[in-house]
Amino acid sequence: MVSKAYRYDSRRYLAYSDSFLLKGDIEILGNIIKHYHVIEKGLTMPETRLGFGQKALMRLIGECDHYVKLYGNGDTQLQHCLAVIKEYQDFHLQHHFVLPDDVVQAIDRIQSFNSHQFVSSQKVATRDSYFASAGEAFDTFSLSRASVRHFSNEDIPIERIEAALDLARNTPSACNRQSCRAYVYQDKQQIQDILDEQGGNRGFGHLANKLIVITGELGSFSHSFERNQVFIDGGMYAMNVLYSLHFYKIAGCILNCSTTPEKDAKLQQLCGTPKSEVFIAMIVCGIPPETFKIASSPRYELCYIAKFNQ
Predict the structure, then answer these.
(1) How far apart are the first and last CA of the chain?
(2) What is the three-class DSSP state of 217?
(3) d(Cα 125, Cα 122) in Å, to the nearest integer?
(4) How far is CA 244 from CA 84, 152, 207, 248, in A?
(5) Which of 62, 123, 140, 173 is disulfide-compatible with 136, CB 3.0–4.6 A?
């Protein structure tokens, strides 16, 4: 039954993911969102490198071209992408950096699709404003949390990390099995070694003061129908940890642990985690500086993601 279930998963993933061919609007748009967020992150780095990401930008423009030809330019995420591309150009103009002619021409051409005249501007926050709602009602509190990639040299008292993880213990789990584990790393070299292997933290990972690695224990689950439950429980726990860190005024950025088998084995070695545990996510933690930037990353409207059946 287990092998049959994994074959079922494999066939569905091959048929509907964008791993091989961008088959439809959902797959193409998912790629556009993923790639414009790379540009957003570059614009919010502690030290943005002038001229960064030109190849990625040109690929993104090509994806926008392809999408508009097939499906038009009405999607709000596409419109935001076009605005991010313009923000990239404006950022370099403000810093008197001359982009290559082909890049400028591609940016100017693609702006004709921005019929709604969307404007993108990455958010600027202060430490006080970012944590101002940490003790407010949940709706205000939740909307105030965002991923932070700027950290000062200030040390996080380990007691605050402990308090956050203690608060996150109330996360629901399947049949209360509580399969999630959290490993906290404080040694700078060990943190750097782990983050180097993770690979998705260039430009800010070296600033992390603490690193939390979240795993899930496979031994808590049984039978083929529970094959994905460790990741479901782990995802809920990871979000609760993020909220708990924010409550205790610790900034964090969650990093994915989507890895190859080789990288997974290497990370197990570096982190010292048991083979029975799977990686869920990592969270780089720190105290933000007095002023920093946050990616705008707008969400879809509720009507796009929620369906109400009569």
Answers:
(1) 36
(2) strand
(3) 10
(4) 31, 20, 21, 6
(5) 140
